Amino acid sequence: MKRVIVTGGTGLVGKGIEAALAHGDARDDEEWIFLSSKDGDLSDLEATRAIFAKHQPTHVIHLAAMVGGLFRNMKYNLDFLRVNMAINDNVLACAHEFKVEKVVSCLSTCIFPDKTTYPIDETMVHLGPPHSSNFGYSHAKRMVDVYNRAYHAQHGSKFTSVIPTNIYGPHDNFNIDDGHVIPGLIHKVYKAKAAGEKLTCWGSGTPLRQFIYSEDLGRLMIWALREYPEIDPIILSVDEAAEVSIRDVVHKVADAAGFSRDDVVFDTDKADGQFKKTAANTKLRKYLPDFKFTPIDEGIKRSVDWFFENYEQARK
Ligand SMILES: NC(=O)c1ccc[n+]([C@@H]2O[C@H](COP(=O)([O-])OP(=O)(O)OC[C@H]3O[C@@H](n4cnc5c(N)ncnc54)[C@H](OP(=O)(O)O)[C@@H]3O)[C@@H](O)[C@H]2O)c1
């Protein structure tokens, strides 16, 4: 019997894993335990040890992290560095101490060098400094890959990592000021619709992004835990052809919410951010050539419906 603990299991990605298990990915020889910060603060070594002692996991999916939007990152780079370094150090040290067979940790595409060539691939993680806005968070995440290689070199541990692109889905953080693009937009459309007002989006809407639906990511993380044989990270992303413009995303959110596209305004005086950050999923496609991603229209529809139906409880 395998016993899998999912740290940070109550967030967007943890709920995606839970959904994938509920929709056909569960196995009889696996027990899954989803943890939140209420089960213990993983930035504290003794609390982390107590969690491992209690659950005796054979496998770990490590999602817990101090996360936040651009402005919180810019203001608290030191906190993002220290807290995430502590969480990662404690989780991997305890995984080693308690003889965990495999750990899959979750990184992020923002860890890649700021100045790079496109498409980005797994070999580029350490090839230059990350963007200055969130260098604390990015360096802490990059170090997970260093830890994984060091644990493997010294102890033969099977600790690895995955790098998802932008994630969206039910149970996201829908905060407008501190959240990500899709949940922020969904919340803005909700408010504009309720107030009978126009929806103003910052920027021209031309930048391109790759979005992965949380349940697809959940399915791929379960695969990574069971099958992915490497220590080196793997990018978990939709194909390059599935890259969409922010304008398209805004229109899809509006359509899903029953909000007229004519009432959407793009404020082109506001900055656009990076034009694109295309990541290659060539490595993933080598392992899983036939994996089918949820089409973005369907994923957005499900996310919009979830937010409208769960408005009171949703994180916002
Ligand atoms: N969202 C994205 O677009 C995105 C993109 C790339 C990578 N990622 C990565 O994916 C992972 C999961 O992200 P998410 O979006 O699912 O985040 P989330 O929804 O904010 O969830 C974060 C989880 O971590 C837990 N946590 C935070 N601090 C903790 C601590 N000190 N001790 C124990 N647990 C703690 C939270 O518990 P509580 O709920 O109890 O606070 C929650 O379960 C993170 O590693 C993140 O860096 C996310």
Topology, pairings included?
Layout: E1 2-7, H1 12-25, E2 30-34, H2 45-55, E3 59-62, H3 70-75, H4 77-97, E4 102-106, H5 135-155, E5 159-164, E6 166-168, H6 181-195, E7 199-202, E8 208-209, E9 211-213, H7 214-226, E10 234-236, E11 244-245, H8 246-257, E12 264-267, H9 282-287, H10 296-309
The structure holds NADP nicotinamide-adenine-dinucleotide phosphate (NAP).
Account of the protein in words:
With 316 residues, this protein is α/β, with parallel strands linked by helices. 42% of the residues lie in helices and 15% in strands. It has ten helices and twelve strands. The strands form four sheets. It has a six-stranded parallel sheet, with helices on both faces. The chain has a two-stranded parallel sheet with strand order 6-9. The structure holds NADP nicotinamide-adenine-dinucleotide phosphate. NADP nicotinamide-adenine-dinucleotide phosphate is lined by residues 8-14, 36-38, 41-43, 63-67, 87, 106, 108, 164, 166-167, 173, 180.
